[in-house]
Amino acid sequence: MWFALVGIIVGIIAGSFTTFTIPVLYARYSAVAIIGILDSVIGAIRADLRGKYSAAIFGSGLISNMVLAAGITYLGDVLQIDLYLAVIVAFTIRILNNIGIIRYAFLTRFLGKRAVREKIAGE
C-alpha cells in the first residue's frame, strides 16, 4: 500500500521539475482524471485499513474511474453541457466519505473502539 503514497510523492516531485504544460482543450479531462485517481488511491487506503485491499481491484478501479470520468466529460463536450462538474462532485463526495472512514479507522486504532464510540455518543 505504501507504493501508492511513494508514487504520489515521486509524481509531485517529478511534476515540479518539468516544464510540460497541458493544453487548455484537455484541462477538464486532466482534472477529472486526477480526481478519479485520488478517489481510487483513497479508496485503496480505506480498503487496506480494513484488511480488504486487492491490487487487482485497485488497478481496475483506477482505470475504470479515469475512463468513465473522461467519457462523461467527452459526452458533456459533445452535448455542450458541463458534465465534468457532475463527475467532480460525485468523486469528491466519495473521497470525503472515504476520508471519514479512514479517520474513524485511525481513531479506533489509537483510542480504541470503545473510547471512540463513547466520544461519538457524548457529542
Structural topology:
Elements: H1 2-17, H2 27-49, H3 55-79, H4 84-111, H5 113-122
Helix pairs in contact: 2-3, 2-4, 4-5
Query: Overall 3D geometry?
Result: globular
Mean pLDDT: 87
Please tally the helical runs, counting DSSP H or I stretches of 4 or more residues.
Answer: 5
Amino- and carboxy-terminal Cα gap: 33 Å
Domain count: 1
Q: Which structural class best describes the helix and strand composition?
A: mainly alpha
Helix-strand pattern: HHHHH
Assembly state of the chains shown? single chain
Whole-angstrom Rg: 18 Å
Largest sheet: none
Query: Which range does the strand content fall in?
Result: under 5%
Number of beta strands: 0
Low-confidence stretches: none
The amount of helix comes to over 70%
How would you explain this protein's 3D organization?
With 123 residues, the protein is mostly helical. It has one domain. Helices cover 83% and strands 0% of the residues. Helix 4 (84-111) packs across helix 5 (113-122). The model has no long low-confidence stretch (mean pLDDT 87).
